């Protein structure tokens, strides 16, 4: 879900919130035919039981006066061969808290 911000209305950047299932890799369900199925994805009643889901918030970019655009900090994300993440408007970082410092998900 994209959340509008003041700068969104001026065309700068957008904010995003996402809900993902908490790590429940061993959660199993048996049905009447005695088959075992792995439960994956958000449960159908996740909005009533928010304890089963984690809310991730997108990190707000900073405005770089030299490049005249909004950017995210990818300094700690240098690959094995020394390749750096190329800046793109499609890149985003998600944190567990509204203004969290630790990146949980990055694309």
Automatic annotation (TrEMBL):
It comes from the Eukaryota. Pfam families: Tub. Residues 4-106 form the Tubby C-terminal domain. Belongs to the TUB family. This is Tubby C-terminal domain-containing protein. It comes from Aegilops tauschii subsp. strangulata.
